[in-house]
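User: Predict structure, ligand FE2/S2 (inorganic) cluster.
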Amino acid sequence: MSVINLKVNGRTHILDVDPTAPLLYILRNDLTLNGPRFGCGLGQCGACTVIIEGEAIRSCITPVATVEGFQITTLEGLGTAVNPHPIQKAFIDQQAAGCGYCMNGMMITAKAFLDQNPKATQAQIIEALDANLCRCATHIRVLKAVQQYQQEVAA
Ligand code: FES
Ligand code: FES
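Assistant: Predicted complex:
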């Protein structure tokens, strides 16, 4: 075990944890931040994505010690049910979710991408989200939601 200084959603946490543990486990089990989901655990589905220093990162394959001191944002850091972030509101407006399991990864990945590429084309948005898997086949509604967010806020 090691003492790790983790900055999540604007708060600093001093944690005594296994430094090799996946960031996802620490977020969910130690900090009870359940926005990031466990899907594949292999970096292949995107359900666990968080934003680290502006980049969409798969937390299931990220050892917690490697992100000590970095600014980490989870879905909880964007908005709340009462006061959703515009990207969360767009996903609600477009009723983008099926079961909802992949939605964390979709929203987090789209936000990080559009923060860096506010004028992205539809083809570029599709490419950016291509590695986020959805078994409910919500892709068309997800795309509409992301484009709504882009028009309202990002562009
Ligand atoms: S749970 Fe991390 S990519 Fe699937
Ligand atoms: S909404 Fe069910 S996996 Fe995407």
